[in-house]
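Closing statement on the fe (ii) ion sub-project.
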Amino acid sequence: MFNFIYDSGMDKTVVNQLETNQASKHSSGNIRVNLGSLSGKILLFGGVYSNLQALEKLKQIAEAQNIQPENCICTGDIVGYCAQPEEVVQLFKIWGAKSILGNVEIQLRDGAEDCGCDFRKGSRCDGFSQMWFPYAQSKLSKSSLDFIATLPNHMDFRFAGKDITVVHGDYFNVSEFVYKSTDWPIKQANFEATGADVIVAGHCGLPFNQEKDGKTWLNPGVIGMPANDGSPQVWYAILEEQNGSFQFTHHTMEYNYKLANAKMQNDFLPQEYARTLITGIWDNTEILPPYESGLQGFGIQL
Ligand SMILES: [Fe+2]
């Protein structure tokens, strides 16, 4: 392991370049940015999924709560199923929030032919991705692709006495689906590899938290799609230091999902995902373990 300076257009930060045998199978290289110590409220979110209306609302929430852009951190998949990938990337860039690479950004950066979720061939998610991924590719400007190429694989920061690492799927595989029901030893391996007290993760689309042995796995959820709970609301999380201790809270967000749905009314995007924006119910649960699948439409168990 060695250190070098990485200039991502933000302040120069120290980065760890890990051995390639630890790099996830979808990421060439493994850029790990250290943001140093952060203070004040921190806004955590993931999965914007090209949903411009959701990103606009989240930015308004951050501004209303006086959360600085550099304290707004995304777990990746800025681009995804919805209608406005170019507008979303440009707004994200103008806002100045921070993000790691999701599997979608890695595949876009590398000019790949699919979203990198490793969906089973012939599955519904695989078929849908053959629509939305080429659509997103066709819409993104060089400026947006250049921005995506600046994003690191992982971020570290210190907050309220905790060492926190931000990953997309998990530390070893950007496309790993880690749920609350995922066995703790799988999560534990991530804490051991990163040295983190808290891992902030995304990718699976569901908000949850789990604490064990002084370690915390926190998924703030995604803002670009509902959480399969029967509500069009979406999820994010806030970190705060209270009386010197680390605290996190999960939050739902109302936004203009009817407009996001209307923007998806074209022949190039899966209408099943457009409907999910309104119903809050996923088209299918083929990626979900039995526990999470059984909760469809029954609300979120945090
Ligand atoms: Fe993802």
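The two ends are 36 Å apart (CA to CA). With this model delivered, the sub-project is considered complete and its resources will be redirected to Aim 3.
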